């Protein structure tokens, strides 16, 4: 069977995924058939279509048409004024876009306001750890997700990584705010705009000669790719918090998951792919995330930029949190293999410091261990760990800087 052309795929829209046979037709994709059951999803049921062949047909066709008819600059200009979830859409938007956005901004029927309120409490209590894990577990992991690294590098935003980091941080910031999904919050707006931006990338990247040379897919950001990136966020974050023994009541853990399930839905991920529990999330991540992690030249460059975060983050440079320290933190969080892929040098002092002192540091901060009973060296490094937490928090807070508007791209990275 021949690989479907981009046009065939777009024409067939989401239904292509039902043809599981396609999964074995593409050598680059062979070896990891989609077997995760929709019974474990928030929908509880579904066709079980392989998400590598499902994109976001409605948004994709619409945004492709906006780009092709030259409407994007005006749409972006108008959408800059649309910032709050409960705010009416600005006047003057093309009718087809308005129609779509009115539907896309609706919360899923399964969204649970009680859980979302509990998630707010969790985010407030755990904001410092969340900052570090979003930045150094999720952010650095994104550089070893080959498809994401390539897409980010060769899309328009790749030309200005500082701007892109801040825009991406906006989602991490918004989801943690007390009114995230409420009418006066901004998370729904951020998700809908991101959904449109992704649709733009799906239309534009296949025209990039640079991306085409290295990509192993014809259209980027499939539903499978979306879930991979999603797992690099809440799943990886929660795995680290658990590993560090941060005390988290089950209701808060579930609520945090719920806020990310709603986010996935609002980004256009189908409910049948969104895991309904941490067990399901961990199982799906083992299937879709772990096996695809790999180094790419693009990812190595992106990681290097992220490691300079101490100097990127507004409010920085943080004098003490140097690149070698962030390299060690990455090695500690993501392990030796990934750190070596990213060509992060070993740091004899700091690698050992994280290995032996980070968990006691968390325990002391949480009041579970007294400083007297902690390893003696912790006193010396406590300040540095605190600064790292502050950097993570600042990074996420940078997403709250006004004004940040996520935009539909109208071109690729020209470089
Ligand atoms: C843009 C979040 C999945 C590639 C964005 C933005 C956000 C975001 C907030 C807007 C920031 C900006 O415009 O710079 C997410 C989340 C995801 C996800 C939460 C999954 C849950 C993916 C995947 C890919 C991808 C799977 C590629 C494989 C991109 C690219 C842009 C973008 C290339 C930039 C568009 C431009 O250059 O203007 N994403 N993303 N994203 N995303 Fe995603």
Explain what this protein looks like in three dimensions.
The chain is mainly alpha-helical and 415 residues long. It has 2 domains: 57-292, no CATH class; 310-398, no CATH class. Helix content is 57%, strand content 0%. It has 18 helices and no strands. It has helices at residues 6-12, 57-68, 72-79, 95-104, 113-142, 146-154, 161-175, 187-204, 209-214, 223-243, 250-266, 278-288, 297-307, 309-312, 323-334, 336-341, 348-365, 378-398. The longest helix has 30 residues, at 113-142. Residues 1-31 have low confidence and may be disordered. The structure holds protoporphyrin IX containing FE. The site of protoporphyrin IX containing FE has 24 residues, from helix 6, helix 7, helix 8 and helix 10.
Radius of gyration: 21 Å
Number of helices: 18
Helix fraction bin: 55-70%
In the predicted model, the low-confidence regions spanning at least 5 consecutive residues are 1-31
The average pLDDT is 89
* Helix-strand sequence: HHHHHHHHHHHHHHHHHH
Class from secondary-structure proportions:
mainly alpha
Instruction: Give the biggest sheet.
Output: none
Question: Which hetero compounds are present in the coordinates?
Answer: protoporphyrin IX containing FE
- How many discrete structural domains? 2
Strands, count: 0
Strand content: under 5%
Instruction: Name the shape in a single word.
Output: globular
Termini separation (Å)? 35 Å
